[in-house]
Design a protein that fits this description.
The protein starts with 16 loop residues before the first helix and ends in a 9-residue tail after the last helix. The protein folds into two domains: about 15-40, no CATH class; about 45-83, no CATH class. It is built from three helices and no strands. It has about 80 residues and is mainly α. About 0% of the residues are buried. The protein has helices spanning about 15-35, 35-40, 60-75. The longest helix has 18 residues, at about 15-35. About 45% of the residues lie in helices and about 0% in strands.
Length: about 80
Amino acid sequence: MFGFFSNKQNNECPIDGRMRLWMENAFLWLAYQFGQNNILSKPMLLPTPEFFPIQYDGSKDSMIKTAEIIAMQMEIDINEVVL
């Protein structure tokens, strides 16, 4: 997938600097919002049927079902999420 996990011994970051900073800031925001220990103790949700047993088709219904799975993972009330 995009060569991120290839076996090559390449020390170059596979994303450009702007995207890397955005991702780092997003992770810092998540840690602040949900607590670093909380995030570290949860399994990683992968985009597979094991974690998302829904048929995502871009519809509003599939978006809501996806959001419900993520809200449950993060222990937040889906009714407090604005989609």
